[in-house]
Amino acid sequence: MRRRDFIAALIGVVAAPSLARAQQSGKVARLGLLLPFPAVNSDFAQYFRGGMRELGWEEGKNWVFETRAYWRDLSAVPGCTEELIRAKVDIIIVVTLQVALAARPVAGDTPILVAVAGDPVRVGAAESLAHPGGTITGLATMSPELATRRVQQLREILPGATRLALLGEPGTPLMPLMLDAILPAARSLGFVVRVFDVRAPEGFKASFETMRQWSADAVIVLDSEMFWRNGPRLAAAATTVNMPMACGFREMTRAGCLFSYATNIREHFRRGATYVDKILKGVKPGDLPFEQPTRFELIINLKTARQLGVTIPDTLLTLADEVIE
Amino acid sequence: MTVMGHSEERSAADPAGATDTSSLDGAVRPRRRRLFVKYATLFVAVVTVALLFSGVFDALSYYREHRRALVRIQREQATAAAGKISQFITEIEGQLGWTTQLPWSAGVFDQRRFDALRLLRQVPAVTELAQTDATGKERLRVSRIGMDVIDSGLDLSRESKLTETVARKVYYGPVYFRGESEPYMTLAVAGARRDAGVSIAEVNLKLIWDVVSQIKVGEGGHAYVVDWQGRLIAHPDISQVLRNIDVSQLPQVRTALSRGPRGDASQPDTLSQAKNLRGEIVLTASAPINPLGWHVFVELPISEAYAPLYAALYRLGLIVLAGLIFAALAGMFLARRMVGPIETLQLGAARIGAGDLSQRIAVKTGDELEALADQFNDMAGRLQESYADLETKVESRTAELERSVAELRALSEVTRAVNSTIDLQTVLSTILANAISLAGMESGGIYVVDPATRKLQLRAAHGITAEELALLRAQPDHERHLQRRLGKDNHARPFNVDIHLEPDTEVRALLYRIGILAPLTIPLHDPANGTLIGALVVNQQAPGQIPAETIELLQTFAAQSVLAIRNAHLFAEIEAKGRQLELASQHKSQFLANMSHELRTPLNAIIGLTEMLVSSAAHFGTEKASEPLRRVHRAGTHLLALINQVLDLSKIEAGKLDVAPERVHLASLLDDVLGTARQLAEQNNNSLSLRVPEKLGSLTVDPTRLRQILLNLLSNACKFTKQGEVTLSAGRVTTGARDWITFTVADTGIGMTAQQQERLFEDFSQADPSTARRYGGTGLGLAITRRLARMMGGDVKVASEPGKGSTFSVRLPAGAGGEEQAAEPAPHRMSGGAADP
Ligand SMILES: Nc1ncnc2c1ncn2[C@@H]1O[C@H](COP(=O)(O)OP(=O)(O)O)[C@@H](O)[C@H]1O
Ligand SMILES: [Mg+2]
Questions:
Q1: Taking every annotated instance into account, which residue ranges of this chain make up the domain HAMP (chain B) (predicted)?
Q2: Which among B415, B346, B355 is positioned nearest to B383, based on CA atoms?
Q3: CATH number, domain containing residue A208
Q4: I need a surface site. Which of A45, B31, B426, B460 has the fewest CB within 10 A?
């Protein structure tokens, strides 16, 4: 009798911790993914999954995606956000600050992670990069600073160019910030600058036609999710007017843009997993600093260069991180 | 008799024996327990101490080794990390060196710019690179995140970073934060040539993160870097760095920093336990990063660091516990093994001590205990042997005793038979049966010499069937045969005869048939005159001599037989004489009765004639003759009374006096008696009175006999009293459970002395010889009175004093009359006592 009790107690002692562990692992985290289009299996999602895997999370076992698409309609964001909140997501992942700001009033205490944030402090999403303070955190892109570097690189490729067109999507919070950075830089390098607006891919052709009429020697595309998603169409439009084009996303260079100098936003998604990990482990988003990029990639599309009849200087080619032949 | 039986006998003889053994068990148990517990406890204690000692020792040494290993690993990691970081910085330094190879001249400007851009591409940590010429003017500045600046004209010559660089060839600036979040450091290198100027790089220290994050310290441990001001420069959790945290307040950081910005690398930090930024207790080690004056800290949460230790301790605990359980079991087992033989020994010894000598102690341990057990067994064996010896002796004594007890019993039975019965047959049979069974013989007989014929006759036989007995009786020759032999040899002592050696006669053939082969004959002689009165013959079926002690025993029985035969003879004689006496007495009574009758008839005629003659004497004128006639008449009357009394007495004696009880009213009977006695009283001028209680009632009694009794007493009273008083009284008296009627006759006459009173009730007895002369009488009255009273279940007694008078009282049972006579023949003896003859 006594012996059996003893053995039972022993088994209890041995078994108790493992049991507790087993019970702990019962919860499955729900990650709300709010994208402009249904993209559960897109590159970004895959990069994010990779990041989660590296941190020891297993999809379907201890976390799942809850995706919503707002179809590029910012006014649909609050509705989607509400749905996600109702689905009891632990965190909402968005791509841009614009969406994050639109979702914030609805999301309440639910943390919002921005994968590609331009300048969160200036758009009012964070108190400071080091200490965002609110519910929004994420990875900054340093888009404005990088844009000035793009102007310089364009000057090196086209030493004789004088007219520089800037193509932007009005309404994006980043656009004025980028303009603020680019305009003085372009002027200092002797460019005459004119800003062209386009709100939809349908307007691409017309915009480029206008640029041609203005005799623009080159165009710098201001960072926008719309441009990033419609890279090929934009490149096609640029090709029709034989316009050298500099972009903020490597994907656009792959689509036909002359070159891009920017952070790799796929990396942003992979790094985003570390934020999710911390938030799920209880760190407040306000305590998680906006991380600034440290790696910038210069991608040059030589095919486009040849089509344009542009010669890329050797010094630039040597410095390029990737050259597309 | 077995030994077991013996021990039983002993324990039965000693009532304490049984309780002894039980109390023995009771006493053994706790003692055994104590020893058992002692052994088991000792064993467990020894094993426990050993286990605990080795366990604690193991744990301690394991703890020390584990700690040492942790120290080594962490220190190695810290040192390695420090090496890597310092290499990281040194590489940047080296790269920067390349950019300051060329002197500032117009032709090299583009080359230098290109070199600078290439540096940015090759060294991602450098975000911005500025170059000055020998005068300290900034000639070139390239940035990843901004446009190139050429000949900005900024004069840096006064700035400390430049002067220091120029002085020391290399400069490590303090860590600063861009945008309050990105850690940066200014790293400046002066060219080998004086005119090559200085390259100033802004290094993004976040890239040290790559180095730091690659340092894996267990599961939850990590490394981080702190600059000489105590600011966090690198941490796997980059957000910690970006928050620009001052960690100098952490004790481990303070300790490391206190060694100075250029701490001695050869003197390793001691591993310490401290709280980290999150407040967790960690094991931490640090190594200085030279030449920056930074420190790499490696930390591991204490819980994880000691997890294997705890696991080991837990395992150790389990092992110790299992060991203890095993020890307890083994201890119990061993203790049982050790205590078992001792217990067996003890119990065995106790049993032997309690008298169970057949007990053998089975201890097969092959050691001293077994030797001890063997010695106990030897001892028990010896004891058992000596007891067995003693027992055989006791056994034979007991047998002897039993035999003599049997003999005594037989003898006493015989004696009792001899004494209690005069039936010779029974006595002889008893003697014979006892003699044969005690002597261990099969059969036998007792012959008795018939006093009349002087021939031996078989009076008792034993062990001989009726059939055989009939054969013997049918052959009276065998008695003659025996007698002849007894007579011929004049045997006075027992003698043994072997039938085989006898001449072949019919008797011998008969004896053969019956199976008597060796009869032992013991002659029975009358000790008074030595004449042969019989013989005791016992038959032993096997031929051979009979042991002397058996013969001796048989002689005792023979003596008893003699006694019995003599008694029988004597009794026979007495019986014969008694019969003759009785016959004579009967004849006498018969004669007396007849005689009385024959006498009374003529005497009545004589008295009647004499009366007639006396009365007619005057008529006839023969008055002179009347006196003699009166005398004749008196004498006749006296004679008649005498004859009547003698007749009564003889009737009583001959048992021919019958009593006829009937219901009698006492008062009237007493009146009647008093009337008769009045005449007697008047003769001596005595007054006669009667005192009777009112309700005397009636009595079942023979009235004639009662009247005779009372008249006897009254006549005596009147006769021996002159001018006195005679009183008859009656009353009921209860003595014990019986009721009596008492009749008392009291007078005031001459009385009697005590001696006279003694003989009073005897036949023909009177107070003294003169009485008859003076008072007349026969002396038979009181004798008859007493006989009658006794016949009726009562008695008579007297109280008297000479000269004062006498009082006679008679009592008769009130409940019954004469019937009770047979039931209560013994008279109640009354006080003052008329003694029986
Ligand atoms: N009442 C009496 N007083 C004195 N003596 C008596 C009395 N009765 C009897 N005796 C004595 O007892 C004797 C015996 O008496 P009893 O047998 O009657 O014979 P008897 O009368 O024939 O002499 C008497 O002789 C007498 O001596
Ligand atoms: Mg008389």
A1: 336-388
A2: B355
A3: 3.40.50.2300
A4: B31
